[in-house]
Amino acid sequence: MTIERQYSLPNCKLILQGYNTGSDGKSDGRASLNVLMNAECHFVGYPQPITGGREFFESLVRQVSRYVQGFLSGLRAPESFRQQPELVELHSIAGELHQLTVHHPPQEKSSDEVSLAAAPPVQVNLTTVQLFDLVEAVDQFLADSQTLPELSIQLQPLSKRYLKPEQPIAQRAVPAAIGISSLALTALALFALPIPDIKRPEDPKLQPQTQSSTVPTPTAIPPQGSSPQTTVPQSLPPNLSSPPPITNPQELKDLKAQLIEKLTQAWIPTASVKTPLIYRVSVAKDGAIVGYKSLNPELGTETKQTPLPDLLYKPVGSRQTNEPLADFQVTFNPDGNLEVSNLASNTEANPQTSPKTPASN
């Protein structure tokens, strides 16, 4: 009974035909192919397949594996490295093509006389894609333990001495020769230069220290009969004593709306508030509450009943010094009503704040 194995790839198909000499099939019922009668190798674009017996197939497996090993590593073994001539040969040709050549052995007419010469070799030019499909088909065959299990590939490692240099030795030696010549010329030029004189530094001598005498500056004595001059303290400029106020009406309107929204969302009236709590609240241009001050100091301890301590801006770094501020009067009524009105800027009444510790209470 003839057994057939096919290993198909998009650009190559390998077909093996043979039979089994024993009953060593696997438990899956797949018979083992022990004796190879015919091997066919089909390539896309070539109508006629390449055929041969076991000798042809073994040579094909060896040569394909060796050629791809050298193609990928860049190491090509010379012809003398082969122990015997092969029926199958692979060579690289121009245009990134790979020529597959198959030689046929001479046919014998009788047992003691050879009359017919060997048939002309078959040559097929393979692209790189077809070559690697052939390699994949051979790998599938080698991984199939039910087909010719005694056939295995024996690859030998190649030494780096078979690596062909990219440039001839003469071209590679030119940079080294130029470098040595330049080094020699530089050494001659340095040899011609005079040796500089090196003087040892002398020990520093101690110099006598000159003592400077302090001459008191005479104090001017005012003439008799003249009245002594009195120093009048000058007030600091406005930009150093207090931050400038925000005077833009539209900006004040927007900041007031933001303040009302923040206080309304955060304030929860409590029954402990019996008297209206009135505060001066300072707001920066970005809407942050940077300070507050109680306008009824006798109720200063009730500040914790308001959301002002929680809404007070807690700087991570430092805010701008003397940044413009808008002052508002905020009244927290016991009935839960919240009143916010613009407050005229007053230097003495403004809460004193700093970038790190905003003033409260």
From TrEMBL:
Check the record and name the Pfam families matching this protein: DUF4335
Q: Where is this region: Disordered?
A: 201-250, 315-361
Q: Locations of Low complexity compositional bias? A: 207-218
Spell out the Polar residues composition-biased ranges: 330-361
| InterPro entries referenced in this protein's UniProt entry, alphabetically | DUF4335
Q: Which domain of life is it from?
A: Bacteria
Query: What is the name listed in the Swiss-Prot or TrEMBL entry for this protein?
Result: DUF4335 domain-containing protein
Q: Which organism is it from?
A: Planktothrix agardhii (strain NIVA-CYA 126/8)
